């Protein structure tokens, strides 16, 4: 009986993690990819115009801290002259943002 409970728990956790990954990809695709591109290269027309970083680049990834990425998603980004570079995604939960930051980390090549 203990083995069955353990197996059910493990499969439940795996399904939950898989759902979070799917949600993060869905959020990326609907909220981020129009500027950052499907692969995070920042090579879209809008991404190039706004100077989006190439998240597939390991060096770029190393320069970005998770707390800064979280803050950028929550609060958005502005240029030095107060131009909006990225709007805040304040409709995302903290869990959604954490999953999205993890998704961005997975874009590194």
Quote the distance from N terminus to C terminus: 43 Å
How many H/I helices? 5
* Estimated structural class: mainly alpha
| Shape, principal axes of CA atoms | globular
Q: Residue ranges: pLDDT <50 for 5 or more in a row?
A: 6-21
Question: Helix and strand string, N-terminal first?
Answer: HHHHEEH
CATH superfamily: Cytochrome c-like domain
What percent of residues adopt helix (DSSP H or I)?
Answer: 55-70%
Please outline the major beta sheet. 2 strands, antiparallel
Rg for CA atoms:
17 Å
Could you tell me the mean pLDDT? Answer: 85
- The CATH architecture name reads Orthogonal Bundle
Strand order of the largest sheet: 1-2
CATH topological fold name: Cytochrome Bc1 Complex, Chain D, domain 2
Proportion of β residues?
under 5%
CATH first level: Mainly Alpha
Number of domains: 1
Question: Which structural traits does this protein have?
Answer:
63% helix; 109 residues; Cytochrome Bc1 Complex, Chain D, domain 2; single chain; mainly alpha; two-stranded antiparallel sheet
Task: Describe the overall structure.
The protein has 109 residues and is mainly α. It has helices at residues 2-36, 45-50, 58-63, 66-75, 94-105, and strands at 77-78, 84-86. The chain contains 5 helices and 2 strands. It has a two-stranded antiparallel sheet with strand order 1-2.
